[in-house]
Records
---
Amino acid sequence: MKTLRVPEATVTRLSIYSRFLERLDRHGITTVSSGEIAEGVGVSPAQVRKDLAYFGEFGTRGVGYNVKDLMKYTMKILGLDQTWSLAIVGAGNLGFALCTYNGFNVRGFYIAAVFDNDPTKVGKKIGHLDVQPLANFPEISKSENIRIGIIAVPIRGAQEVADMMINNGVEAILNFAPVALNVPEHVETRNVDLSVKLEILTFNLGFRSAQSL
Amino acid sequence: MKTLRVPEATVTRLSIYSRFLERLDRHGITTVSSGEIAEGVGVSPAQVRKDLAYFGEFGTRGVGYNVKDLMKYTMKILGLDQTWSLAIVGAGNLGFALCTYNGFNVRGFYIAAVFDNDPTKVGKKIGHLDVQPLANFPEISKSENIRIGIIAVPIRGAQEVADMMINNGVEAILNFAPVALNVPEHVETRNVDLSVKLEILTFNLGFRSAQSL
DNA sequence: AAAGCATAGTTAAAAAATTCACATGCTTCT
DNA sequence: AGAAGCATGTGAATTTTTTAACTATGCTTT
């Protein structure tokens, strides 16, 4: 089998292209060129073509790409031709926001359950969900076929939650706690760190002044 | 002047190192090696040293780095030796979560104001803040010296909000709407896209199965 | 039907980022 | 004081990623 490592940056961009195509489709646009995609998402046309080339040939020379088709292909590649059930652990403000965030549903994610071990939160309603005690995780993750977990607890609890998830069959974790999780090799994790991007901005604001000295 | 472009990945990691050092410091640890930092944040020791080398020599050969000092240096480099006033536009769930998120204060960010033009939201309290109508942005951004704006509105409103921010002196924008903003060259923007990382996970879950066919 | 045009796909070159390996220099121990 | 040990800092090598240039192909128009 042809084993071709796909750069993570390519996957990231694919996700962005995919969303952009969705938007074009909603606007009734049927055809798009690599240049237009590039312009729309802020990369180079060559980059767009190169990224897509990892996965096949999706366009028509001289014409461009069929929006609907390419959208479907990209979603398929990203594994979004199925619905993924998610479990969120942590029903604080962040957990709450994630639960009510609409962007997930649109992309085929379904938040199946929210957990917290704070007794003042357990039982509270978030949208159509009741906040569950952590003790219910094994049962629910099984019945809902949870393969992806989201950690929205403070640093101190994050590793413990991760371990618990993994013990219950979770294969991938999206971690909002700013800490590197220690996980077995077969488990995928990615961190979302809300202040990193902000600090890139402050770095650049400062660096620019330094440059002009 | 020595002009040395610093890779964005380096800045990203610097932010992560910085937070890790903060944590070590809170635990009373005074000295740390590149290897320990690397282990703690999940990169290679050489990477840590290389990243730091862009900015100077902060360690002692044979010993390592002084935690407190390196923490201060990294924060200084990131521009966090001052308090940054932020304005959030969008008081939906995400805006709310961002307002109440504690991680920002810790790193020297201060949320000075929240805006929304939904009349049902204006005037509501989020923490100590009243949600302001967008019309108040010019006045408040001036009096609070807002240089960084956060966009937490849906796609459709994002560009308009960005334009408005820029017209009022905002120099950097953190954008949570999944769309590429069109901004003048002197304005820095970064997007935070909550579903991209999730889609990297689903890609990897699927790709792994594909590999083992 | 043929020619021209536009854009995808591909290969090669360039640039960027990471890793490697070692020389350097501080600290400690004898 | 000297030697040994250890971890930094750095220049070179490697790998990865991006950019650019080129080629091929399908559509449209004449």
Note: Strands of chain A lie at 31-32, 59-60, 64-66, 84-89, 109-115, 125-126, 129-132, 148-151, 172-175, 188-191.
---
Amino acid sequence: MARPRPTSGQPPDAAGLAFLLSQVGAHSAARFAERLEPLGFKPSHAGILRVIRQSDGLSQQALGERLGMFPSRLVGMIDELEKRGLVERRNSPADRRSYALHLTAAGRDALERIGKVSREHQEAVGAALSESERGQLAGFLRRIAAEQGLTPGVHPGFRTTGGGETT
Amino acid sequence: MARPRPTSGQPPDAAGLAFLLSQVGAHSAARFAERLEPLGFKPSHAGILRVIRQSDGLSQQALGERLGMFPSRLVGMIDELEKRGLVERRNSPADRRSYALHLTAAGRDALERIGKVSREHQEAVGAALSESERGQLAGFLRRIAAEQGLTPGVHPGFRTTGGGETT
DNA sequence: GGGAAACCGTTATTGACTGTAATCGTTCTT
DNA sequence: AAGAACGATTACAGTCAATAACGGTTTCCC
């Protein structure tokens, strides 16, 4: 049994739909992070700002839950964002142990810039495809995401993936 | 509790092709890592074994270059694989400062098992799509990968992405 | 030949991050 | 009024990846 070729020959790079998905996905993520860096943001910051704008006044816990990140992780990031004047921690009127998170004008501005970068990035990533093809691709991905139980806005913060190779 | 109402929505989850790519990609990577764990491997191990089989007898440096990982990182991993009897470090006949990496029979066996897991994973990830749709999807991804300058077998080891969120 | 420079693998060190657990004040329940 | 549950924070530990330095080899070139 030296070189049995069960289905093809190997997990051939040629095929590997799953591999392609994570390869292109990782690339997309990396490139986006690069684009964001000059603005002084990391992708997680963008996610936080986006969610806060979407649901103004939510608590850190709610935010963490929605993004799938631990509250302890949020503290530092919101500290940063607040220090940069993009987010406000107002104390919630009803519940004095939680904060109500709000975007400042500068925060909305930053989010605007992030959105611009996002669109550019999206344009660049999809450059190989025609408009209608991009639509089809998005459709496929949405269906996969739904079937796999992924929540629309959220994405799996890379857990202990190992971080090297994938298929 | 107020349901988060989709007030506005700049990079609306509806659109975000780039987001979808990295979301689904990260999910695929994570799930694959999960499937690999019971075998005692991390995705990077799988990548290493795969490349060694493909080009038997290459040096660690060449391996590292092809996978895009630092030689120092490889040392430990190959140590493991060698300790488990899957890989051999023979000294290269021509150049005594480099090793020639080879797969043992057990190593080929392990790779076989990995291949099986890979195919199962691939099947699971693509479950939402028909056979022909999967083909279309793979085609799109391949075109994107090519246009973006990604090397077929390799994938960007998540660099200092920040590791949290992406779009 | 012989010595400097490039090269391979290895080790040690440093630096980010992330998840868990413990802490402190607040709110809810009974 | 007391104890459990809860939100934010801090402290801690474990993991992991990149950088730099170190011995041993080989190659280049004078």
Note: The mean pLDDT of chain A is 86.
